Amino acid sequence: MKIKPLAALLLALAAPAAFAAMPPEGWRFDFSAKPAKGHTAVQAGTTYDTARGFGYEPDNNSGNGAAATFFSADVPEGNVAVTVTLGPGTHTIKSEVRRLMLENVTVPAGQSVTRTFVVNTRTPAIAAANGMKAGAVDLKAPRETVQEAWNWDRRLTLEIHGGVDKVEIKPFTGATAVPTIFLLGDSTVSDQPGEPYASWGQMLTRFFKPGVAIANHAQSGETFRDSLARRRIDKIVSQLRPGDVVLLQFGHNDQKQIAAGSGGPFTTYKAELRQHVDMIRAAGGLPVVVSSMERRRFDAEGKPYATLADYAMAARQSAEELRVPYIDLNAASRVLYAALGVEGSKPAFATKDGQIDNTHHSNYGAYLLAKAVAAGIRVAKLPVAAQLVDGFAFDPARPDPFEKFAVPASPRYTNERPLGDEANR
C-alpha cells in the first residue's frame, strides 16, 4: 500500500484538481479482453495514478497465504453504489479497509450475475455544516495515515477475491440518496487494517441491502473523550442527514480513565455520551447506544463472567435517561461466548504467534458479533432494519459453527496489535 502521511493527505485535500474527477454519470469499467461499449477498459497492468483516476493498487500480498487484487477509482466523498458483474467461480469482495461487502457469491459455469452494494468513502476534512466549524479530523499517525490510509483518501478501493468482469460506480444525488449508519467506537468496532484482527464494524456491511450505507468512523484505543478531542463526532455530525443513524459503542478503553483518576462509568462516561447524543440529535440524526461486548473470560465452571458490567450498566442507564434506542451487545456477547464454550470460543478471537488475544476478534468472531448488532437493530425497531438482507436471522445461543465459516482472509497482515486495552489481553 502506498504510504500517505498526514501532510500528504491534507495537501491533497487542498489541491483537489490533482485528482481525476469521476464522470457525472459514474464510472463503468470492463476488465475483459473485449470491453463493452460505453465502458472503460482496464488492462492487467493498469496501475492506479491520480491523473488517470483509477487502476490497480500495488501488490499487497504479505505472505500470509491469502491472495487478492486491489482496484481503486476516484470518487466524491460520501456514498456510492457499486454494481459488479461476476463470471463463473466464487467471489468475495471487500471495500476500503477490509469491509465485507459480498461473501462467497458462487456463479455456475457459463453464467454471470450482478450484485450491488453501497460503499461510504471519506476524507479528513470537516465541512462547516450542521453547526460544525470547518477543519479536519485529527488522524493518528502512522496508523490512519499509512496502514488505514485507504479509509481517508479520495478513492474507493475494492479488495477482490475471485475476479470481476465489470464494475460500475454511481454517485447518489438528491432523491436517490440512501440513509447512512455511522459507527463510532473503539478497536472492536473500527476497520482493522490487517489479519489476524477484525471487528464487527467491518462485517456489518455484509448484512444490509444496498438501500443503506455504513460509515465506520471508529478507531482503536479510543473513548468518547477521544472522539470529542479528535473531532470524530464533529466529522459525523457535519455529514448527518435526516434518517441517518449513529451507533455509539465505547467502554473498553474508558476503563483506563478509572486507573488514571480521570473518569468513571457513572460520571464522565455518561456525561460524554450525553454530549454525543445531544450533538447527533441537534443535526437530525438518530443516536443509538450500544454496550461493549465482553472480553473472553471464563470462571472455573466454564461460564463467561463480566469485566465491563459497570460500563454496560452505564450505557443502559444513559439510553433510558436520554430516551434513545439501546442495543445490549454486552449481554448478547455473554450468551454467545457461553454457547461457544471455553475451547469453542478460541477461534472467535485473534491469535498471533500462538497467543490468543482475549479482547480483539478474528474474522469469525467479528462476523458473529456483527450479526448480534444487526439483530439488535431489528429488536430496537430502527427504520434501517428494513434494509437487512432477506432471510437474516441470528440467535447468539446458536451461533454459526466455526467449521462452516468460509470468508477468505485478506492478504494484508499486521504484527501490530490494535491500540488500547493493553492490560486486558
TrEMBL record:
PANTHER family: PUTATIVE (AFU_ORTHOLOGUE AFUA_2G17250)-RELATED, RHAMNOGALACTURONAN ACETYLESTERASE. It comes from the Bacteria. InterPro entries: Galactose-bd-like_sf, RhgT-like, SGNH_hydro, SGNH_hydro_sf. Residues 414-425 have a biased composition (Basic and acidic residues). This is Rhamnogalacturonan acetylesterase. Belongs to the 'GDSL' lipolytic enzyme family. It comes from Pseudoduganella lutea. Keywords: Hydrolase, Signal. Residues 183-333 form the SGNH hydrolase-type esterase domain. Residues 1-20 form the signal peptide. One of its GO terms (molecular function) is hydrolase activity, acting on ester bonds. The keyword Membrane does not apply. It holds the Pfam family Lipase_GDSL_2. Residues 405-425 are annotated as: Disordered.
